Amino acid sequence: AYSSFFAFMALVYTAVVMVVRCGDGSYAVGGHFFSDLEPELSPDLPAGGYLLKIGPKSLLFINILAMAFHCHCNACKYYRELKDTTPRHFRNCTILAMGIAAVLYG
Fold first, then answer.
1. If we measure between CA atoms, which residue out of 101, 29, 89, 26 comes closest to residue 63?
2. Which of 59, 88, 89, 102 has the CB geometry, 3.0–4.6 Å to 106, for a possible disulfide?
3. Three-state SS for 16?
4. pLDDT of 22-77, one tens digit each?
5. Are 28 and 42 within 8 A, CB to CB?
6. In terms of pTM, does the model score above 0.90?
7. Distance between CA atoms of 101 and 17, rounded to whole angstroms?
């Protein structure tokens, strides 16, 4: 389908741009885009590195990724299975579900 091809090409483009930006150091200290992020919004990364440091927060992160992937793959199915199928009803159900998840897991 055309939409699948477009989505695939968008992913390829994003991956290429990420590799280029990683290679040219645009987001590294002193890079072109480094100062664009306000200091209070920058992440607090540990000095000793953070790659492969697994802990309880890692399991939460993996769960969030799995649920996001599951929901994104089934969004059309959820829309089709609504009783009153309208974009507004789907939006309201999504807002309600996200609100419940935020209260339970936030």
1. 101
2. 102
3. helix
4. 899 888 888 888 888 888 887 777 777 666 778 888 888 888 888 888 888 888 88
5. no
6. no
7. 33
Tell the residue number behind the tokens 């339970």, with chain if given: 104
CA distance 52 to 11: 25
Count CA within 13 A, CB hemisphere, residue 3: 0
What's the DSSP call for residue 35?
G
Residue with tokens 């649920």: 67
Please give the Cα distance from 3 to 42 (Å, whole number).
Answer: 35
Cα end-to-end distance, the chain, whole Å: 38
DSSP run (H or E) holding 49: none
**C-beta of residue 52 within 8 angstroms of C-beta of residue 58:** no
